Amino acid sequence: MPNQIKYQELHKEYPRYFWQTGKDETFTEDMKLFTLQSRNSTYALAVLEDGFICHVYYGKKIEDNDLSYLLRLDENPWTLKTNERDKGTFMDTLPFEYPCHGTGDYREPCLMINDRDGMSSCEIKYVSHRIYAGKPAIEGMPATFAGEGEASTLELLCKDEPSGLEVTLVYTVFHELDVIARSVRLKNASPDDINIKRVLSACVDFDTDKFDLITLNGSWARERVMERSRLHHGKQGIDSVRGESSHQNNPFFALVSNNTGEDTGEAYGFNFVYSGNFFAQAEVTQHKKTRAVMGINHFDFNWLLEPSETFSAPEVIMVYSSEGIGNMSRTFHDLYRNHLIRGEYKNKRRPVLINNWEATYFSFDTDKLISIARQASKLGIEMLVMDDGWFGRRDSDNSSLGDWFVYEKKIKGGLKYLVNEVNKLGMKFGIWFEPEMVSPDSELFREHPEWAIQIKGRYMSQSRGQYVLDYSNKEVRDHIYGMMKKILDSANIEYIKWDMNRQLTEAGSSSLPKNRQRELWHRYVLGVYDVMERLTSDYPHILLENCSGGGARFDPAMLYYSPQIWCSDDTDAIERLKIQHGTSICYPVSAMGAHVSDCPNHTVGRTTSFKTRGHVAMAGTFGYELDVTKIPEADRNSIPVQIEEFNEFNHLSREGDQYRIGNVFEDNMWDAWMFVSKDKSEALFTFVQVLGRPNYRSRRIKLKGLNEKTLYKNTESGEIHSGSALMNGGINISLHGDFSSKIIHFTAERF
Ligand code: GLA
How far apart are CA 652 and CA 650, in angstroms? Predict the structure, then answer.
């Protein structure tokens, strides 16, 4: 048994004043206690003798053998044995690991069914458990993974005896990272159908309500804006009912102590490895405790589980930090970079690309693209990405989605010719697809109108002039993937931007029976995963970048397929400060698609310096999205310098630790951050002055993440100071003008 998960069978005798008889009595209790240890955190749960599984502790590491005493801190009756006549009190106060609906726990449940008799109550009890080294995969679903010796897993098999539903709660503890991954499997072990009305993936019943809730919210072009508010009685949460994780709410929240800051205090982060409708909530209960839950949204959800069928719920990643929000973020970053992102580009510098979207929109042809590539190649740009408009008869967003064949009028000479010409310039070639969509004006829709998601007899709502394809239908997926394959096999394509530009309406499928229609939301997401899995295994050399009207599907599940995701259609450097700060709360910089674009910025009309645009994009994957043949010469001439800087420092942002110094959500005058190598021998500091002010020509900024005793050299000025001076005294930053920026590189002198 791996020692990170400890199992104990306890037999305890307790004194107890029994209020019903007025006597002091003793009673005995048997309990199974499971303790999960990561490097700095402990998670403990127990199975009571009546089979209920309850939460004992989650927080800073405790080395004690036995934490079961925590269950008795107050006078609550923890076993039914002593309180049979008032099961409601027992159920409504027990800290549950996986609460069920309908038997006395009135807080938010994780599980609700509709059984053979149409009844919705259920109650799971422990049956057996398994502890093993490693981490299991989740069938058909993205999930984090662990190498040998990196993680241990506890599986608790439970059952709702009357309905025959088996529930397996899965907990994986990563030994070196303060991470616990949780998921749930259901099996219908009865001879009758069971309808699953709700199956969330994780619940933590905290013993306090002294939390602030942090969420990442927004809209198109304003994704993942961080919000923090104090928890109060009742339910506070976020969700998506749009069919994707959404611009509006990211499937992430953190509960942090009221005094937690960037570098101090406790933080519990929850992130859902899923790309569809989700539900995440913190509930402050009558006794001022907090129940946190996360999982697939039960709204408009139903899943028919026939006898012996199974259902897997996606995983929730839980991160604990006792050193503030920054440390929580770094744990998420390390987990995702090493245990979620896969493929050839996992640890590799990504090619510097130029994308033609903001350069040309739909008005381009082979000659235009080659002219951009010719100029770009001279400046050191390594890849041309041909965005929307190369297929079908696509001259605007009014047609052709679904017709994944080359538009010869624009791509004169064919795709192979274009790609070869770009390759001859020494550049790679990338291409845009929107595989989940169909335009009403397309050959595909004319041939297969039934392949679009729709409800017979109802108006089919368009959004951006398009419909969503029914990815729950394998025939649809096979057809679309077949078309994509033909394109990919026809030329040397080395990058794909997979876009998804609308959300679902009239959620009905012509391929699902009536009693499975409500499964469409989830089956759609599983269908997307299926095609992405086929694509990434058939074309392992291709770099996949996800996108959804900017960053509407920036979630960990997508990172399993694509090592990078387009952050936002808003490419303005100042807007990006908030977007990238918010995104970095749980996602690594190596995954954030960020480009230098033209000015005035197409989304907000702001003009910033080319330098500042470069510095902000360097806190992401880095690339260009402009017509390099048309921009001012001075800007064009600075591209080789920017690329040199990117190449010199990219290893720090890609593999190092990120320290946020400024917080544009609290002070929108400036922002600053650092990337520090894991061995602390090198660091890159970036400062952006949002607005210049007469009194603020010079600011003293304290650095972070260095070694106190090490001497660091500012490679530009040659000045040498100790880590202690740089972190406690700080450095003076003097910038003139709005939207100006500066980077400083530090190397360790004596190490
Ligand atoms: C979305 C993407 C953009 C671009 C367009 C093309 O909006 O976010 O980057 O690819 O689609 O239509």
Answer: 5
* Residue of 569, 570, 635, 671 marked catalytic: 569
- Among 222, 357, 437, 546, which is best to mutate for testing ligand 1, by the most ligand atoms less than 8 A from CB? 357
Name the β-bridge partners of 402.
Answer: none
Q: Examine the residue annotation and report whether 499 is marked as an active-site residue of this protein.
A: yes
Considering 315, 339, 363, which residue would you say is the last residue of a domain?
339
- Is 56 domain-assigned? yes
- 544-597 pLDDT, tens digit per residue, is 999 999 999 999 999 999 999 999 999 999 999 999 999 999 999 999 999 999
- Cβ atoms 404, 487 nearer than 8 A: yes
Which residue's CA is the closest to the ligand 1 atom numbered 2? 549
**Domain presence at residue 427:** yes
Ligand 1 atom 1: residue of nearest CA: 549
Q: What is the pLDDT of residues 453-501, one digit of tens each?
A: 999 999 999 999 999 999 999 999 999 999 999 999 999 999 999 999 9
Instruction: Specify the CATH number for the domain of residue 674.
Output: 2.60.40.1180
Number of other residues whose CB lies within 10 A of the CB of residue 474: 11
Residue 160 annotated as catalytic: no
- Location of structure tokens 């510098």: 349
Cα separations (Å) of 271 from 180, 255, 582?
Answer: 11, 12, 14
What is the Cα–Cα distance from 444 to 486, expressed in whole angstroms?
A: 16
Four-point Cα dihedral 204, 207, 209, 214, nearest 10: -30
Q: Which residue, judged by its Cα, is nearest atom 12 of ligand 1?
A: 388
Reading the block at residue 466, the tokens are 């398009």
CA distance to 240, 509, 527, 529, per residue, from 472 (Å) = 19, 8, 5, 11
Residues 47, 75 within the same domain: yes
CA angle at 451 for the pair 448 and 454, rounded to the nearest 5°: 120
Residue 433 near ligand 1, beta carbon < 6 Å:
no
pTM (two decimals): 0.98
Domain that includes residue 591, residue range: 353-434+475-501+516-655
Choosing from 499, 555, 570, 671, the catalytic residue is 499
Pair 634, 698 in one domain? no
Which among 569, 592, 602, 603 is the best mutation to test ligand 1's pocket, defined by most ligand atoms within 8 Å of the CB? 569
Tell which one of 394, 398, 500, 501 to mutate to probe ligand 1, the residue whose CB is within 8 A of the most ligand atoms. 501
Residue 568: CA count within 13 A, CB half-sphere:
30
- Is there a single domain that holds both residue 80 and residue 223? yes
